[in-house]
Write a structure and sequence with these properties.
Length: about 190
């Protein structure tokens, strides 16, 4: 079974995600799941923007869907995005106590459980420091999954990736320009 790329980000991440996805090949042999801290009313418009700018198929993630290679599934704002033990997409309001929806930790925890080292975590920019992404990346590293983290001097809002790096959640630290090639390489195994 192929790898699944799980991308998380917050403040500043929509632009970085758009740049990353625009540089990935249309025949990427892995699905891409995206958890961005974004309000529900912005999800559909963001997906439409991505559809115009990237070669991959882009859709809002739907509960029960089986992730397909070459397709990007964006978690709907206000809900969590994850994977079931059988590898199907789960979209849910639970756990309700988490402030960020979709939560990067929820995506990464469920990917670690369902996929083990076939999961690939990618952490983009964000301010939230230790509030989201750190624990999820540590769960991925515990199952020997690859975790790519951006640390680019030209990027703003590096609180989240720096917190992940300091906690030991990154297996590779990259500049934004190097991220597309790294994701493609990992996806191709």
């Amino acid at each position: 079974m192929e790898k699944i790329i799980c991308i998380g980000g917050s403040t500043g991440a929509p632009a970085g995600l758009t740049d990353l996805l625009a540089k990935l090949p249309a025949d990427l042999p892995a699905p891409v799941l995206v958890a961005l801290h974004m309000p529900a009313y912005m999800t559909e418009g963001f997906v439409q923007t991505l559809e115009r700018r990237v070669a991959l198929r882009v859709t809002v993630a739907e509960n029960g869907a089986r992730p397909e290679p070459g397709c990007v599934y964006v978690g709907p704002g206000g809900l969590h995005l994850g994977l079931s033990p059988a590898g199907r997409i789960v979209v849910s309001p639970k756990p309700t106590e988490l402030h960020f929806k979709p939560s990067i930790d929820v995506l990464f925890f469920t990917a670690a459980r369902a996929l083990r080292n076939r999961a690939v975590g990618v952490v983009l920019t964000g301010l939230s420091a230790k509030k989201d992404a750190v624990e999820g990346t540590l769960a991925l590293r515990k199952v020997r999954a690859e975790v790519l983290v951006i640390d680019d001097p030209s990027a703003r809002f590096l609180g989240m990736p720096k917190a992940v790096i300091e906690a030991g959640g990154a297996s590779r630290v990259l500049q934004a320009a190097d991220l597309p090639a790294a994701v493609t390489r990992v996806a191709r195994g």
